[in-house]
Amino acid sequence: MENFEFVSPTHFVFGRGVENEVGAKLAAVGAKRVLVHFGGESARRSGLIDRVSASLDAAGIEHLELGGVRPNPEVTLVREGVRLCKEGDVDWILAVGGGSVIDSAKAIANGACVDCDVWELFETKALDHDVLPIAVVLTIPAAGSEASKNTVISNDELGRKTGYANNAQRPKFAFMNPELTFTLPPFQTAAGLTDMYCHLLERFFDDYGAVPVTDNLNLSLMNTIRAEAPRVLADPENYDARANIMWAGMLCHQGLAGVGRHEDWATHGLEHELSALDPAITHGAGLAVMFPAWMEYVHGENPARFAFYGQAVFGLTPTGDANADALSAIDETRSFFASLGMPTTLAELGVEENDIEKMLPTLAQNKGVPFGSFKKLTLEDAAEIYRLAL
Fold it and tell me: Which residue ranges does the record assign to the Fe-containing alcohol dehydrogenase-like C-terminal domain (predicted)?
C-alpha cells in the first residue's frame, strides 16, 4: 500500500426530507448570507428551491440565487457567481443539483477568494488561498462531487475542459434525500450509474498491484451498482434502490476507494475532450464508450488484473488463459453499460475520425504527456484508443 493523505470533512445529512434542515444546519455554523446555485427550472418547478429558501428564511439567513448551470458547466457563469459573492458579501454557497451544479459552486467558492480570474486557478492549480464553505442539496447521484476534492469546468472560448483538485473545496454539508431522484429521466439515471462505476475503474486499474482493503471496498461498490441498476431503472421510485445508489455514488468518488493506490484517470481525460468538443455529450455516456476502448488497448500490461476483476464482479470462470479472461471481462463491462442504455461507439455521440486530431492538443494541455498510470500513454496511444471507440 502506498503512502496517502485522506481528508473527509463533509457532514452528511441523509434521508427523507433532509432538504428542510438546510437552514438550521447552516445557521448553527454561523452562515449569514448564502448564494443558492442551481441548474435549470426543474429545481424551481419541483418546489425544491422554495423549500430550501423557506428553510433559510426560517433560520434568518439571507440568500440570493444564481441558476442556469448547464451540463459540463462553463466558466462564464462561474465568473458571474464570483461577482455576486464579492459584491454581495456572501459567506456560504449552497449548490442545489448534481455534479455540474456542485462543480460550478466549487469554482465560484474558489474564485470568490482570489484577486485573479478564476480560470487562472484551473491553469496554475494554485492552492494557497481561502475557499468559501460549500453545502450541497444533491438531486443527481453520479459525480460524487458532494464530498470530493475535485471540480471540472469548461471554457468554451478556449475549447477546453479541465479539472482542479483542492481539499479545501470539499463540501462542508451534503444533504442527501433519495426521494429527490425519483423523477430523474432513465437516461440521466443510467449516465449517473455509469459515471459512478467508472470512478471505481479509474481507481482499480493502475500500476501498483493489489491493495486488498481498498480493492475489496472498490469491488463491493461495483457489485452494488450492478445489483441496484436494474432495480432502479425498472422501478424509479424504489426508495431503497435510490438510497443505495445515492450513497454508493458518494463513496465512489470521495477518495476512500482509491487510498493506497496511484489511480489512473486516463479515461476521464480522454472523455473530457469529447464533452469539450461537444458540450451536449453527457459525461457518463462518453465514459461508457471510452472505458472499454481504453481497456482493450491497455489490458496487455496486466491481463491478470482484468481477469480478477471479471471473476469478482461478473462471476466469470477462469479458463487458464489470463488474456482471454481479460477480454471477456472487457466484453462484460461494455455489455453492462449497453444494458443501461448507454452508447457503445463514438459514432453514436456524433464524433468522427476527423475529430480526433482536434482533441489531441487540448488533451496534452490538460493531462500532460505521457499520462495515465496503468499504462503510460502518448498522444499516439490516445489517438488509437479514440479509433478503437469509433
Answer: 189-389
- Cβ(122)–Cβ(162) below 8 Å: yes
Q: Are 125 and 162 in contact (CB under 8 A)?
A: no
What is the CATH architecture of 11-181? 3-Layer(aba) Sandwich (3.40)
CATH of domain 186-389: 1.20.1090.10
Q: What confidence score (pLDDT) does residue 254 get? A: 92
Q: How far apart are CA 197 and CA 342, in angstroms?
A: 13
Average pLDDT, the chain: 96
* DSSP calls for 212-274: HHHHHHHHHHHHHHHHHHHHHHH-TT-HHHHHHHHHHHHHHHHSGGGTTS----HHHHHHHHH
d(CA 311, CA 313): 6
Can you read off the three cell numbers belonging to residue 169? 473545496
pLDDT at residue 6 in the model: 87
Q: Considering the entire predicted model, what is its pTM?
A: 0.93
Amino acid in position 93: I
- Which phi and psi angles does 94 have, rounded to 5°? -115, 110
**Domain residue spans of the chain:** 11-181, 186-389
What amino acid is encoded at 257 in this protein?
A
List, in order, residues 6 or more apart from 160 with CB less than 8 Å away: 154, 276, 362, 365, 366
- Examine the pLDDT at 248 and tell me if it is beyond 90: yes
d(Cα 68, Cα 75) in Å, to the nearest integer? 12
